[in-house]
Amino acid sequence: MTTQETPMSHAADARPLSASPFTRTKPQLSEQLREVDRAIADEDNAKAAASAPARSADYAPLGEVITEAFKQASQGKGYERHGQGKDFLDQPIMAIGRMVGPGYNTGQAMKKAQEAKSMTDRGEVDAAVAELLGVIVYAASAVLVIRGR
Q1: How far, in Å, CA of 92 to CA of 108, rounded?
Q2: R_g over Cα of the chain
Q3: Is the pLDDT reported for residue 28 higher than 60?
Q4: In this predicted model, what pLDDT tens digit does every residue of 108-142 receive, in sequence order?
Q5: What does the pLDDT read at residue 21?
Q6: Is the whole-model pTM more than 0.85?
Q7: Residue 40, domain extent
Q8: How far apart are CA 81 and CA 105, in angstroms?
Q9: Segment 74-111, tens digit of pLDDT
Q10: Counting Cβ atoms within 10 Å, is residue 49 exposed (0-12), middle (13-18) or buried (19+)?
Q11: CA distances from 141 to 28, 64, 66, 149 (A)
């Protein structure tokens, strides 16, 4: 991003804005905010990658598991049970956390981790993996609650 560009210019490049922000629907505004968030994250990631020292360690397996947790929440069981067409920030996982604090989200992560351990002890590997992916989602939701999202 040059010094003349702003995060909004990236979102504007992706889709033309209507004449007035008051004529857009809530889903349109939500999508525009997500585009701005993605543009900011892309910029932050590019800056971090450019300033990070070269590493020989491979973090791809970690990224694969995090992506799997994202897919479970956005397309799999989590979406089917809780999504109901709602944005993640509007789902119960976030709404309850905002009502009672991040202890809800971290407590749910702890409960799921304990369940996964019991499942592993019983040889229920696939079920344990699914629970642990849920731990990742609950941990991420706690981060979002703490950040005021």
Answers
A1: 12
A2: 19
A3: yes
A4: 999 999 999 999 999 999 999 999 999 999 999 99
A5: 53
A6: no
A7: 1-54
A8: 17
A9: 987 767 777 777 899 999 999 999 999 999 999 999 99
A10: exposed
A11: 23, 19, 13, 9
For 52-75, what is each residue's pLDDT tens digit?
Answer: 666 668 999 999 999 999 999 998
- Tokens representing residue 57 in the block: 């360690």
Q: Do 14 and 35 form a contact (C-beta atoms < 8 A)?
A: yes
Q: Does residue 80 sit in the same domain as residue 40?
A: no
Number of compact structural domains in the chain: 2
How far does CA 119 lie from the centroid of its chain?
Answer: 26
Dig out the tokens for 53 from the structure.
């020292």
For 133, other C-beta atoms within 10 Å of its C-beta total: 23
Q: DSSP characters for the chain?
A: --TT--HHHHHHHHSPPPS-GGGS-HHHHHHHHHHHHHHHHHHHHHHHHHHSPP--S--HHHHHHHHHHHHHHHTSHHIIIIITT--GGGSHHHHHHHHH-HHHHHHHHHHHHHHHHHHHHTT-HHHHHHHHHHHHHHHHHHHHHHTT-
Asked if 100 and 133 sit in the same domain, the reply is yes
